[in-house]
Amino acid sequence: MLTYFLPNEHVKSVFDIQPATLKNRGIKGIITDLDNTLVAWDVKDATPEVIQWFKLMKDHDIKVTIISNNNQERVEVFSEPLGTPFVFSARKPLSKAFKTVANEMGLKKEEVVVIGDQLLTDVLGGNLADLYTILVVPIVQTDGKITKFNRKIERRILNYFRRKGKISWEE
Ligand SMILES: [Mg+2]
């Protein structure tokens, strides 16, 4: 059961994820979380680095959709200037939004990766949708209220995986 919380891969930052590596593995689409994955949860707009990363993916024909549990205003204000499709109030970890987006992209499961900073929403949801999951280190260590609670559980799960030798990275 806990293996549903285990990401396929772990990287420091979304910017470590580059088109060449994805393309080599046949990846054509990215489903990414917003808060603490692309920018800090309390930062309204995309940073120049984020804008550049989206452009890079576009130039390489890799589709990107933002899926967030946050509200319409937050997700829309951030996503629209990037010209990227988005889903707000996504109810992660339910797998529905992930499946719908992969379908809308017209891609097979094997061609889509999920990127996010939380085990309990992004990784669990991506895994339940049977997609390849990449965990990133949260951009800032502070969080909204619900996330704070999730982090406590997350820490326990990560420690369990560490004890079992399933993950090797440090926090
Ligand atoms: Mg997040």
Summarize the model shown:
This protein has 171 residues and is α/β, with parallel strands linked by helices. It has helices spanning 19-24, 48-59, 72-79, 96-104, 119-128, 145-163; strands at 9-11, 29-32, 63-67, 86-87, 112-116, 132-136.
Lateral arrangement of strands in the main beta sheet: 1-6-5-2-3-4
Calculate the terminal CA-CA distance, rounded to whole Å. Answer: 23 Å
Number of domains: 1
**What class, by secondary structure content?**
alpha/beta
CATH architecture: 3-Layer(aba) Sandwich
Give the total of beta strands: 6
Radius of gyration: 15 Å
Could you tell me the CATH topology label. Rossmann fold
Helix coverage percent: 25-40%
Q: Number of DSSP helices?
A: 6
What composes the largest sheet? 6 strands, parallel
Mean pLDDT: 94
Low-confidence stretches: none
CATH homologous superfamily assignment:
HAD superfamily/HAD-like
| CATH class wording | Alpha Beta
State the shape.
Answer: globular
